[in-house]
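Fold this complex.
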Amino acid sequence: MRVRSSRVLAWAVPTILAAGTLTFFLVMTKPRAQAGTLSHDVTATFIGMALIALIPLGTLVYHLAARHSEAEGE
Amino acid sequence: MSADNLPAIVTFVLFVSATLVITWWAHRRTQTAEGFYAADSSISSLQNGIATAGDYLSAASFLGTIAIFYTFGTDGLLYALGAAAGWPVLACLLSERLRTLGRYSLADVLTHRLAERPIRIMTATATLSICVTYLIAQMVAAGTIVQVLFGLPYVPAVIIVGSLMVSYVLFGGMVATTWIQIIKASMLLAGAAFMAGLVLSRFDWNFPSLLQRAYSLQAAGASRLLHDPFSAACLAIAFCFGPAGMPHILMRSFTVRSSADARRSLVYATALIALFQLLVIVLGTGGVVLLKGSGIEPVGGANMVAVMLARVLGGNLLFGIIASLAFATILAVVSGLTLAAATAVSHDLLRSVLPRGTLSESSEVKVSKAASVGIGMFAMGLGVLFQHENVGFLATLPLVIAASANFPVLLLALYWRRLTTAGALAAGWTGLATSVVLVVGSPKVWVGTFGHAQPLFNYEYPTILTMGSAFLLAVIVSLIGPRRNWKA
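Structure:
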C-alpha cells in the first residue's frame, strides 16, 4: 500500500521537533556546575537558535509535501 | 505624566485611533453571525498568518522572555524556543481538519462525531478557563506598563485596557480583531527587528561577542528558573501542545476560505513567530549587557527590561514607541481572547442549555456581545486582584490547561475513530480539573499567592500528569465504556 509522504510528514515533523525541544529543555535544566561554563552557554544559545530556525523549515517541508499531494490529486 | 513620555502617548493614541477606525469600518461590514465569529471566512492566508502570529505574540513573549534572560540568563532560551515549539503540531496535524470540520468554535469540530450537548458544555468551560487565566496575565502586564509609561495608577490602567478590548469585540467582531492583530504583529516585528539591529550594531555585528559578554555578567551559580527534569519536561510539553488547545488560536482557522489556506497561514505564522523569538534572544542578551553591565536598574522590575533597553538604544523616542507597542500588543491579544470566550458562552454554552431552534443567529450574536461585556468586567476585576503576580508565570498557566483539557480531545477526535463521547468527556473534564487543581496547589500559587506554608503539589507545572491522564482516560473509557446514544 502506498503511503502519502505528506501523511508521514504530518506526524514526523511535529514529533521530531517536539523531541528536540524536550531534549533541549532537559539538558538546559542540569545544574550550572554540570552544564554551565561560558562556552557551554554560548554553544547552547546557538543550538537553541538552530532549533528555532528548524521549526518553520520543518513546517514548510510538510506544507510543500501536502501541496504536492494535492496537485497529484491524492 | 512627563514630557519624556510624550512619544509614548502620541504613538499609543495613534494606535488606538487607527484601531477604533478599523472597528467602526468592521462594524459596518459585520452583519451576520459568520461575519462576527469568522469574518465570513474572507481573510487571506497571509493576513491570517500575520494575525495568528499576532494572537500568540503576547506581552509574555516580548516582555516576559527578555525579562527571563535578564534574571536567569540562558533560561530565557527555554521560553524563546518553547514559544515556537507548538506550531508544527497545529500546522501539520490540525490546521486542515480544523478548517474542514469547524465553523465558529472548537466545539463545532468535536460535535461532528460526538454528542453535541455535553461536548459543548465541556469545551465552553475549558475555553472560559483558558481565556480568563490568559486575560489575567495580560491585564497585569497592561497595568504595569501603564504605570511606567503614563504614570497612571494601576486600576484606571486596567479599566482603560478592559474598555478598549470590549469595544473592539462588541462593535467589530472577528474582522476588527483580525486587522488589529495584523497591524500590531507588523509593528511588533518591525520594532523588535529595529531594536535587535541597534543592539548588534553596538557590538560591531559580532553576535558571539555579545553572547560572551552577556553570559559572563551572569553570576556563576545564579538561580535557575527550573530546578528539576520533571518541571522542565512539563514546561516543554505545555509549550509543544498548549498552542494546539488555545481557543483563540484555533478559531483563526475558520477565518480562511479552505483547508489549504488554513495550512498555508500557519506556515506564515510559524515563520513569523520563530523569527520574532530569534530577535528576542538578541534583545534579551543585549538587555543583560547594556542594562546590567552598565548598572542600570529597570524601573518597574525585570518585566520592563525591553522598554528600558529601548531607552538606552534610542532615547525617549524609541522608549515611547516600544512601550506603547507593548501596550498595543496586550490590547490586541485581549480582544482575541475576549472574542473566543464570548463565542464559548453564546455559541456553545447557551446553545446547550436552550432547546434547539430557540436561539436565532442574530440573537446569538447579541448574546455574544453581552457576554464580551461581562467577560471584560470579570477580567478587569481579576486583573486588579492578581496585580502583584509574575506575568511570565501567569502566561504559561493557560498553556498547561489547554494542553491538558482541549488538545487530547481534539487530537483523538480528529485521528482516532474509536473515541466515544464518554471517552472525550472523561479526558476533557479530567484534563481541565487536574490542571486547574494542581496549578492552584503549586508552590507559586498555593504558597506564593495564598500564603500557605507548604504547597499541595511540589512542582510548578503538572502537564505530564494532567495531559497524560487525559489521554489515558480517553482511551480506556472509549474502549471499555458503553457506546450507545452517541454519534459515530
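Chain A touches chain B at residues 9-11, 13-14, 17-18, 21-22, 24-26, 28-29, 31-33, 36, 38, 41-42, 44-45, 48-49, 51-53, 55-56, 58-60, 62-63, 66-67, 70 (CB under 8 Å).
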